[in-house]
Design goal:
The chain is built from 8 helices and 7 strands, in the order αααβααβαββββαβα. It has 216 residues and is mainly alpha-helical. Helix 2 runs antiparallel to helix 3 and helix 3 runs parallel beside helix 5. The protein starts with a helix and ends with a helix. 32% of the residues are buried. Keywords: Hydrolase, Lipid degradation, Lipid metabolism.
Length: 216
């Protein structure tokens, strides 16, 4: 679970685990296709099991409302792009993120059906990023590949630190550092997930509606 609301609009600890798992998987590409498929299933199973246990434990403690953000375009983070000679997104990582999100969606629906009084809203970070990256200027971004704070290529070869190079206008960058979004990107995500209208990036209800649900 995220340590704070601010963290929840960046990468949660589960998403960091997801990225770590992707790194391990990328190091095992010499394995057969069947072995890689088995590895992927085990990877998903481990994360979904952790999610299920965390939500069930919180439910036991009295929690009834859960706002969950799925994994975004993991392959388009600067830390992933920098591994490609041309700085392109890793489609393999993005496919894995999409597969995990499908499993997460099913898990939440199953938990809501079996745990009386549990309500949830699942935000589609991946879908929002796809739409934003397809037309970044519409959202005010001029750079969706580089980190605003970092060093060397794509600003992604080192962590953001007090002596790191900074971009001239952080509001035009989607990424603050090699993993996290800028404040502007986080605000746009919050607006999309709390939007009080037709559901586009949340299911089955948005975060604002979740707040006003009367839980048992």
């Amino acid at each position: 679970m995220a340590d704070s609301l601010a963290d929840s609009f960046g990468l949660t600890q589960d998403a960091v685990m997801f990225l770590n798992g992707l790194e391990w998987r990328s190091q095992a590409r010499n394995r057969s296709a069947a072995q890689q498929q088995s590895d992927t299933a085990a990877f998903y199973g481990s994360l979904i099991s952790n999610y299920s246990a965390a939500i069930t434990n919180l439910y036991t403690l009295g929690a009834r409302k859960f706002a969950v953000i799925n994994v975004g375009l993991a392959g388009c983070l600067p830390v992933a792009r920098v591994l490609d000679a041309a700085g392109a997104c890793s489609e393999d990582r993005n496919r894995l993120a999409a597969g995990f999100n499908d499993a997460l969606r099913s898990l939440l629906a199953d938990l809501a059906a079996t745990l009386p009084g549990l309500f949830y809203s699942l935000a589609d970070s991946l879908g929002l990023m796809v739409a934003t990256f397809a037309d970044p200027q519409a959202s005010g971004f001029t750079d969706i590949s580089d980190a605003c704070c970092g060093s060397k290529r794509l600003g992604a070869e080192a962590e953001c630190s007090p002596d790191a190079a900074l971009c001239a206008n952080r509001d035009q960058y989607y990424f603050w550092d090699r993993v996290h979004p800028t404040q502007r990107a986080a605000i746009l995500r919050a607006q999309a997930f709390f939007y009080d209208g037709e559901a586009k990036y949340t299911t089955p209800i948005n975060f604002k509606q979740l707040v006003h649900v009367t839980a048992a």
